[in-house]
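Dear Dr. H.,

I hope your travels went smoothly. While you were away I took the liberty of generating a structure for the chain from your last submission, since the lab meeting agenda had it listed for discussion. I wanted you to have the full record in hand beforehand rather than looking at slides cold. The sequence, exactly as received, is reproduced here:
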Amino acid sequence: MVPDPGAPAAPQEQNHVLAGELILNGQRYHLVPAEPSMSPAPASDVRLLTSRELQVVSCVCAGWGNKLIATKLNISTWTVAAHLRRIFVKLGVDTRAAMVSRCLGAVSLPPTP
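The corresponding predicted structure, in token form, is as follows:
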């Protein structure tokens, strides 16, 4: 059946999601609407993270860059990057913002060092 171009469109469910920019500690982040299926990571996903990975997540949540995280945790920036890659894989995300979003409601994070 071909839809009639003059017929009114069927009502669609609308999700009002914020989009825009966020500037945090001088860093500019672009916020885009999340997919409707995106939700906080199940607790089981976050429980896959090691204590060190949770420390890294906590630092990223505080807005710290890799250099500052490395300095505060006494590790190299390469090690920070490796932790982030493993965290992304475990949580099924591909950005720092998505990682923070998945972790914030799922588990209590350790305080930043």
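Two observations you may find useful: The longest strand covers residues 20-24. The beta strands are 20-24, 27-31.

With kind regards,
E. W.
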